[in-house]
C-alpha cells in the first residue's frame, strides 16, 4: 500500500473495516460448539419481528392513519403491525434476559450490551408513539394520561403527546431511523466480537494474543 | 489460566479455538422471518386488533349534556383542570417538582392554551348563532375582565353547590354565561365543536391538544377510561382496550403508581409529585439497564446465580466443567 493511500480517509475506513469485520466474520458459516441453546434464537427472532413491523408499517404509512378503521385489509394490516410489535417485545425481553444471565458483556462486549439496552429503550419510545397515533379511543386515553408524566419534568414543552402530527412523524420517521441504526450497529458489534464464551470456559479453547 | 480479572477479560475476548459446529445464520434468519410472519398472520386473522371508536364532543354533549355544560362553565370560570394546570399550557400553577428541581415550571408555557377563548368563545364565534346566544356572546366580548370573571365564577360555584344538578341552580348574577354554555352544548350536540376545536380557524391542523385537554376537564373521558379498566390505579396505560395485550413493557413504569407513597396524592413530597418522581426513577433505571456491565454487584450476579449452567449445559457436560465459585 502506498504512503499516499495510507493517508486517504477512504482507504483508512476500508482497511479498518477489513481488519475488524472481514466478510467471514460478518457472515460466518460456523459457530462455537457451545452455541447450542434455544436462547440464541431470540436475537434473530427479534430482528425478524422488526422486519414484519417495518413491512406492515410501510403499508400503513402509504395508506394513512385513518385507513385501517374502515377497510378490512387495513384492519388486517394494522393487526399484523400490532401482533408483530407484541412478538418483537416478547422476543427482545427474552433475548435481554438471556444475555444478562450469560453476562454477555464479558470480553470487550460492554458496548454490545449497551447498544442492545439502548435499542430496548428506543423501542419502548417508538411503540409508545405508535399507540398515540392509533387515532382511536386508546390513543385519546393514553395521550391524556401520559402528558402529565412528560409535563412534570419539563419534557412536555417540546415532546407533546397530544400533538398527533408530531407523534406521527416521530413514529414513522425519526424513531425508526434511530432504532434501525442502533440495531444495525448492535448486530455489527455482535459479529465483530463473536458470541460470548461460556462462563468458566476452558482456557485452551481460547487463543489469547499477548 | 490466571484468576486476575484483566487476564480473564482477555480470555473472554479472545477468538474461539475450541470445537465448532456448522451454523447457517442466513437460513436461520429466513426461517425466523417466515415463522414470525406466519404467526403474525395467524394472530391477525384469529384475533384482529383493538380499535375502539374515539370519543367525540358530540357523544359527550349528547350522552351527558349536564356534565358537558358544567365543564364549559368551568372553562369560562378558569377552574377547570386545564385552566389551573400550569406549564406547558399556562402559568396558573407551578406544577410538580423533585426537590429543588421545578422543571415543569422552568420549561415554561410553551404550548399556551386559554381555556376561555380556545374552548368556548373562539369555537362559538365560528358559528351562525341564534339571536340570544349571539347576544350573549356580544355581551361577553364587550364586558370587562372583572365582570366576566364575576359572572362565570358565580355560576360555576352555584353549579358546584348543587353538585352539577343544573335544574337546582338558583337565580343569580351570571350574566351571559348560562347562554354561552348552552350555545356551546348545542354546538357540540350538533357535531360542530369537534371540527371547530381542531381547526381553530385554520385549514391544516394536526394538533389535538385542545380537544384532549377539554375532554379531560369533564367526566366523559374519565368514565370511559374507568369502564375500560385503563385508570392509573389499575395499571393504566399498560392495559389495552378489550381483551388485548397492551404495552406490557411499561409494567415497571405502571408498577410505581400501584404502591405507596406514589399512589397517595396527599403524601408529600413524593406522592404529591408522583409523576415527576416516577419519571426520574424510570430514567435512572433505564440508565442502570444500559450500564449494568459497569455496576458492581449486578454485573457479577450471572456468575453467582448459575442459570448459565443450563444455557451451556452441553458444553459443561462434554468438558466435565464443574461450577466455580466467583
List the helices and strands and how they pair.
The complex is a heterodimer of chains A (210) and B (326).
Chain A: H1 3-7, H2 9-20, H3 23-26, E1 30-32, H4 41-63, H5 67-70, H6 72-101, H7 110-132, H8 137-152, H9 164-193
Helix pairs in contact in A: 4-6, 6-7, 7-9
Chain B: H1 5-13, E1 20-22, H2 25-47, H3 57-63, H4 65-77, H5 103-107, H6 115-125, H7 131-142, H8 145-161, H9 177-189, H10 192-199, H11 209-217, H12 220-227, H13 251-256, H14 274-290, H15 301-304, H16 308-311, H17 313-319
Helix pairs in contact in B: 3-4, 3-9, 4-6, 4-8, 4-9, 6-9, 6-10, 7-9
Task: Tell me what the structure shows.
The complex is a heterodimer of chains A (210) and B (326). By secondary structure, chain A is an all-alpha fold. Chain A folds into two domains: 38-102; 106-197, Cytochrome Bc1 Complex, Chain C. Helices cover 70% and strands 1% of the residues of chain A. Chain A is globular. The two termini of chain A are 27 Å apart. The mean pLDDT of chain A is 93. Chain B has 326 residues and is an all-alpha fold. Chain B has three domains: 57-218, no CATH class; 232-290, no CATH class; 293-326, no CATH class. In chain B, 53% of the residues lie in helices and 1% in strands. Chain B is built from 17 helices and one strand. Chain B has helices spanning 5-13, 25-47, 57-63, 65-77, 103-107, 115-125, 131-142, 145-161, 177-189, 192-199, 209-217, 220-227, 251-256, 274-290, 301-304, 308-311, 313-319, and one strand at residues 20-22. In chain B, helix 3 (57-63) packs across helix 4 and helix 3 crosses helix 9 (177-189). The radius of gyration of chain B is 29 Å and the shape is elongated. The mean pLDDT of chain B is 93. Classes of the chains: A mainly alpha (210), B mainly alpha (326). Chains A and B meet through strand 1, helix 4, helix 6, helix 7 and helix 8 of A and helix 1, strand 1, helix 2, helix 5 and helix 11 of B.
